[in-house]
């Protein structure tokens, strides 16, 4: 089951490999969160889609409209698309483990951040 949201952030990346992205710039990410499991509950769902959308929104809202260069959670790290996908996946996995999605059937979470129509990064993890 997949839900989608988006976030806008500002950041810069350290290292020659990043070329012009070393300067402070904005990024708008489309964020897809997929919840994986093997069994459906008695209502025929893995996760309530509305609740999943709310939880995803709260995770990305915590990052949105911020300069990630100033965010202590990312101190000393480049906030690449891959790093941010992992961060969102880890926060969602924590919320699943805490029972916030109201199910115990979710076994994995995959998060894809789309940084443009032709580039994205996905991070997948077990719950």
Protein described:
With 127 residues, this protein is α+β, with helices and mostly antiparallel strands. It has one domain (2-126): Tetrahydropterin Synthase, Chain A (2-Layer Sandwich). It has two helices and four strands; from the N terminus they run ββααββ. It has helices spanning 49-61, 81-97; strands spanning 2-11, 25-37, 106-116, 119-126. The protein has a four-stranded antiparallel sheet, covered by helices on one side. β3 and β4 (119-126) form a beta hairpin. α1 crosses α2 (81-97). The longest helix is centred in the C-terminal third of the chain and has 17 residues, at 81-97. The model has no long low-confidence stretch (mean pLDDT 96).
Question: What are the key terms here?
Answer:
4-stranded antiparallel beta sheet; 24% helix; 127 residues; Tetrahydropterin Synthase, Chain A
Outline of the structure:
The chain has 127 residues and is an alpha+beta fold. It is built from 2 helices and 4 strands, in the order ββααββ. Helix 1 crosses helix 2.
Give the strand tally: 4
- Name the structural class: alpha+beta
CATH superfamily, called what?
Answer: 6-pyruvoyl tetrahydropterin synthase/QueD
**Architecture, CATH level 2?**
2-Layer Sandwich
Number of domains: 1
Radius of gyration: 15 Å
CATH fold-type name: Tetrahydropterin Synthase, Chain A
Estimate the strand proportion.
25-35%
Anisotropy-based shape: elongated
Put simply, the count of helices is 2
Order of helices and strands: EEHHEE
Secondary structure topology:
Elements: E1 2-11, E2 25-37, H1 49-61, H2 81-97, E3 106-116, E4 119-126
Antiparallel strand pairs: 1-2, 2-3, 3-4
Helix pairs in contact: 1-2
């Amino acid at each position: 089951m997949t839900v989608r949201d988006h976030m806008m952030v500002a950041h810069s990346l350290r290292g020659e490999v990043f070329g012009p992205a070393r300067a402070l710039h904005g990024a708008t990410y489309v964020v897809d969160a997929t919840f994986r499991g093997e069994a459906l509950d008695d209502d025929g769902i893995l996760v309530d889609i509305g609740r999943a959308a709310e939880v995803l929104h709260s995770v990305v809202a915590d990052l949105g409209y911020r300069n990630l260069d100033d965010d202590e959670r990312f101190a000393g790290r480049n906030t690449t698309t891959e790093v941010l996908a992992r961060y969102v996946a880890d926060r969602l996995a924590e919320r699943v483990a805490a029972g916030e999605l109201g199910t115990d059937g979710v076994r994995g979470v995959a998060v894809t951040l789309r940084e443009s129509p032709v580039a994205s990064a996905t991070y997948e993890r077990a719950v």
